[in-house]
């Protein structure tokens, strides 16, 4: 039994354009079968009406925010990739530095740590051996090791710097927080950094340069050592002030006098000693200035002194130094508690000051050569700090 015929209004007619500019015969020639469409008149081009424009204006409002977020994130990712890689030249791959550097250090270790023993001429004369590196590469290893000697001194620097994220936050918890959390005061470091860094870069350094006062990277790093020593000394003084105030004195929040009933009338809380948390603000000021002098000068020193093939290795060694500082911070865990915090902070301040004196006593010559030769470039298009090799 055949289905009942459809009404003329519901029948779908094959597509034939009613528009005069459309060739219906050409459409039939390129299509294998007619295109069914219910109302061909709507496909004719026409001018937009005010009602159409009003509807189009609100189309973007119907797009969910997650779609805009995905589109923006994708565009930002593409810009970050191509914007940072396309402008830079692509150098052909070179031989790996690590295997050759390891072999050179091994040869030096077997020769009482004399790098000259790894020189190709030395190996050829004494052992009749041909090595795959050049004398210039051995000299670069020597320069890289000189850079690492300065970087290793930052172990104590990182040890004291890490106190701002550990014991200093705990110290703030022992003080009256005045309506903010004890983590909030840590943001003062970033605030001071943002404010003081332009002052130092745009005013202090040009002022010293106009008066021909040498202030090289070693001097700046030494200043940062002493600033961190002052910061740790101030932290020790702040801790002594906390211990001198009630209600718990040397054991903040750990005595019966500090126990108070909570707002719900059931739970109990322990109030801190009667010292405002904002007393810590100068510590973060000294820390921020020390960070500006220390880390910026260290990066400059590494970039200038380390050879081109050794810059990444020296930077990686800096991260190893930071890891050593973090490990020492963990080792101080057993003594990082009341009532020994004053002694611990004072000891760190003294260690930092002694490290600053020793650092400058060992590396002060670098600044002299840096100031003299800062306009001289070597074959790697980098400035030379030291022009004479250390005697072996």
Strand order of the largest sheet: 1-2
What is the CATH class name of the domain at 146-372? Answer: Mainly Alpha
CATH homologous superfamily of the domain at 146-372 - what is it?
MFS general substrate transporter like domains
The outline comes out as: flat
Largest sheet: 2 strands, antiparallel
Assembly classification: single chain
Class by alpha and beta content: mainly alpha
Distance between the termini: 109 Å
User: What is the number of beta strands?
Assistant: 4
Q: What is the helix/strand order?
A: EHEHHHHHHHHHEEHHH
Percent of residues in beta strands? under 5%
Q: Determine the fraction of residues in helical runs and give it as a percent range.
A: 55-70%
Number of helices: 13
Radius of gyration: 35 Å
Mean pLDDT: 79
Second-tier CATH architecture of the domain at 146-372:
Up-down Bundle
**CATH-derived topology of the domain at 146-372:** Growth Hormone, Chain: A
Pick out the low-confidence regions. 8-12, 375-392
Keywords: Membrane, Transmembrane, Transmembrane helix
Transmembrane segments: 150-170, 190-209, 221-243, 281-301, 313-334, 340-363
Membrane topology: Multi-pass membrane protein
GO molecular function, one term: transmembrane transporter activity
Please explain how this structure is put together.
This protein has 392 residues and is mainly α. Among the domains are: 97-136, no CATH class; 146-372, MFS general substrate transporter like domains (Growth Hormone, Chain: A). The protein has helices at residues 24-30, 50-57, 65-85, 97-110, 120-127, 135-152, 154-161, 167-173, 187-210, 217-243, 281-305, 311-331, 341-372, and strands at 13-14, 36-37, 259-261, 268-270. The strands form 2 sheets. It has a two-stranded antiparallel ribbon with strand order 1-2. The protein has a two-stranded antiparallel sheet with strand order 3-4. A hairpin with a 6-residue loop joins strand 3 (259-261) and strand 4 (268-270). Helix 6 runs antiparallel to helix 11 and helix 9 packs across helix 11 (281-305). The chain starts with 12 loop residues before the first strand and ends in a 20-residue tail after the last helix. Mean pLDDT is 79; it is low at 8-12 and 375-392. One of its GO terms (cellular component) is membrane. The chain crosses the membrane at residues 150-170, 190-209, 221-243, 281-301, 313-334, 340-363.
């Amino acid at each position: 039994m055949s289905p009942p015929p459809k009404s003329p209004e519901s029948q779908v007619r094959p597509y034939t354009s009613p528009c005069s500019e459309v060739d219906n015969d050409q459409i039939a020639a390129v299509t294998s079968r007619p295109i069914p469409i219910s109302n061909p008149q709507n496909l004719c081009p026409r001018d937009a009406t005010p009602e159409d424009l009003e509807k189009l204006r609100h189309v973007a409002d119907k797009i969910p925010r997650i779609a805009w977020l995905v589109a923006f994130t994708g565009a930002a990712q593409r810009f970050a990739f191509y914007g940072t890689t396309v402008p830079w030249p692509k150098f052909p791959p070179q031989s790996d530095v690590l295997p050759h550097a390891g072999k050179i250090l091994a040869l030096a270790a077997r020769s009482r740590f004399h790098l000259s023993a790894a020189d190709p001429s030395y190996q050829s004369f004494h052992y009749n051996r041909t090595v795959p590196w050049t004398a210039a590469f051995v000299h670069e290893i020597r320069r890289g090791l000189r850079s690492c000697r300065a970087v290793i001194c930052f172990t104590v620097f990182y040890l004291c710097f890490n106190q701002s994220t550990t014991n200093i936050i705990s110290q703030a918890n022992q003080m009256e927080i005045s309506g903010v959390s004890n983590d909030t005061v840590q943001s003062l470091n970033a605030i001071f950094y943002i404010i003081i860094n332009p002052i130092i870069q745009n005013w202090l350094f040009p002022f010293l340069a106009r008066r021909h006062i040498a202030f090289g990277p070693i001097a700046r790093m030494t200043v940062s050592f002493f600033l961190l020593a002052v910061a740790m000394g101030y932290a020790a003084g702040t801790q002594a002030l906390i211990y001198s105030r009630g209600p718990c004195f040397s054991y903040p929040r750990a005595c019966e006098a500090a126990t108070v009933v909570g707002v719900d009338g059931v739970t109990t809380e322990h109030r801190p000693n009667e010292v405002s948390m904002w007393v810590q603000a100068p510590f973060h000021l000294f820390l921020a200035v020390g960070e500006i002098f220390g880390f910026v000068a260290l990066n400059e020193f590494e970039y200038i002194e380390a050879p081109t093939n050794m810059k990444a290795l020296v930077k990686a060694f800096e991260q190893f130094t930071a890891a050593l500082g973090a490990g020492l911070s963990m080792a101080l865990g057993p003594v990082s508690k009341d009532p020994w915090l004053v002694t611990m902070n004072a000891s760190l301040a003294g260690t930092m000051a002694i490290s600053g004196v020793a650092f400058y006593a060992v590396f002060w010559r670098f600044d002299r050569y840096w100031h003299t030769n800062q306009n001289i470039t070597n074959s790697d298009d980098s400035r030379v700090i030291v022009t004479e090799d250390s005697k072996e």
